[in-house]
Amino acid sequence: QKTREDAQRQLEQAETTNFPMYVAMLCQELANEQSSQYTRNAAGIALKNTLSSSEASRRNEMIQRWLSVDEATRQQIKQAVLTTLASSDTRAATTAAQVIAAIGAIELPMENQWPDLMKNLLENVTTTNNSTLKIATLTAIGYICELIDPIILAPQAGAILTAVVSGAKKEEPNQDVRKAAIDALYNSLEFIRDNFEREGERNYIMQIVCEATQSSDVNVQVAAFECLVRIMQIYYDKMRFYMEKALFGLTVLGMKSEDERVALQAVEFWSTVCDEEIELANEALEASDAGETPDRLSHNFAKAALPEILPVLLWLLTKQEEDADEDDWNVAMAAGTCLSLLAQCVEDAIVTPVIPFVESHIRSADWRFREAAIMAFGSILEGPEHKMLTNLVNQALPVLIDMMKDDSAQVKDTTAWTLGRVSELLIECIKPDEHLQSLVSALVLGLRDSPRIVSNCCWALMSLSDQFGSRESSLPTYALSPFYEGIISALMETTERSTNESNSRTSAYECISTLVQGAALDCFSTIQKLTVTILDRLDATIQATNQIIGSDERHAHSELQSNLCSVLTSIIRKLKQEVVPFADRIMTTLLSLFTSSTKHSTTLEDGFLAVGAITTAVEADFVRYLDAFAPFLYAALSNHEEYALCSIAVGLIGDICRALQEASLPYCDTFMNMLLQMLQSPILNRNTKPA
After folding, report:
1. Whole-prediction pTM value?
2. Where is it found, in Gene Ontology cellular component terms (predicted)?
3. 235: CB partners within 8 A, 6+ apart
4. Sign of CA dihedral 251, 256, 259, 261
5. What's the rounded Cα separation, in Å, for the pair 682 and 660?
């Protein structure tokens, strides 16, 4: 360990004291065929990391540092990494491709820097039978296309396209070369617009990609379908001919593939078609409202393909795995998303063909078919006219409520999601006297279930609150009033779970916030009791701050404090002047929270929002707290790296001055000085400054 740390220190020192020698040494190691794979790869990654950074300020510094290296050394490094593309060590060759792209990203935007790079790369692909060299070169081209502004690369589009097409065509015997070429084509699609305008070139590109979907190599198939998805995003207007000739058939075939990766991309293709056509429909509506003609027209691909793709999507919905991880995107999830987009795209046309599937399978003995039927039903609720759906939802509601008791966790999960969709989109179908008691009971029961089900039950309850309640004003009573205390109690019980799996605890706190925001006046006594409980919990987290061990525990602790602050903010905003009796206790707790938080804590942001709400509620009386709060406010205004916190702090100055009026004058000089410092700060995010 000590030897490694010493070596690390020496390398860092070399980078600082003699950068040209340092990068030359790293390049020499990367190019050394006698060195181990590990050493070569480590040297290459270190070299790349001296040239590129995701931070803009660091990137400019790195560009200047590289350009300050003498021309001879830079030329030597560039030649060495180009040579390394042919290395039999494939990891070294791939790392060299990354280095080439990093240098290219610096030099190609500049006049007369590395002018022969693309010519050299093109020769590597078109004049050699060395597959390793071809793959690494195509990988380098792909990285270059990914990193560099399309406008800069546009003059090189012809050379890039020639290289890519040479490797991607079906005559290429090595499928790894073909895969690398199609990946490079994917990255180059933005700046070959001129080529795509020319029908002959466009036809050739489309032919090559379509042929690649039929490769014997699954990796090539997946890459080709990914390419088609991107082409549809960028060149939708040009796709009519290809849809009619090939893409309908190829993508439906792809959706039926036994390999899930292929099926996922083929489904994604149709999701992309729907996305584009939903956007075009919105543009047409806006143009119509303005009395204008839309710039682009929809080809209605989704509507034309509905009879072909809908049966496949419904079949794919039944392909769930018993123990599927919710974080792993699978073909059943993709099909559900695509079906939802399809409903928004084709609107009323989706209803009639989907309903028989729902009716046939909602009582199936196989949980997969029950779940698929409910997913299909939930997915078509947005898009069609409400009158097309009202009777169906009225019939389905009692069945769905009953299915919250299903033996299958997956069925209950999807049922809770669908009930949330009904609550959000078709609230008129939920009759308070007829449905609400059984619906709320089913959702509250679901709060005791697995974390995934909890999250969807919370969302459904939030939707009910949003639809029946009012955030702007407090009604005397509302539909959820009879159940309000019971729902809050069940949610608070849910938040006591030790983990936040599937975001369940956060969802429960968000649900409490939403219920508070929409509450009627006859729920205020419950909210006042809730205030004390939330403050007690926040105090307990503050006392536990010093017992936190490890970054995961710290993150969970910070997240819990943020959740509690968010609920507190909702309570203050809802109760308005009625929160005054709690104001001293609230500010005491918040000041303790700020004392225990680090300056980078997101908890500070949520705590500051609560303070902003208090200033509005207590108005001029806030002066009693300002001396104690001011140091935390000043620290936030000076913390220019944390621009979100800075922005909230600026808003707080406005809240305080509005609330205190003339009583804020003693603080205004400091406020103004700090605001001026922010305007002059080179590191403060520009969104925090005025336009």
Report:
1. 0.86
2. cytoplasm; nuclear envelope
3. 189, 196
4. positive
5. 32
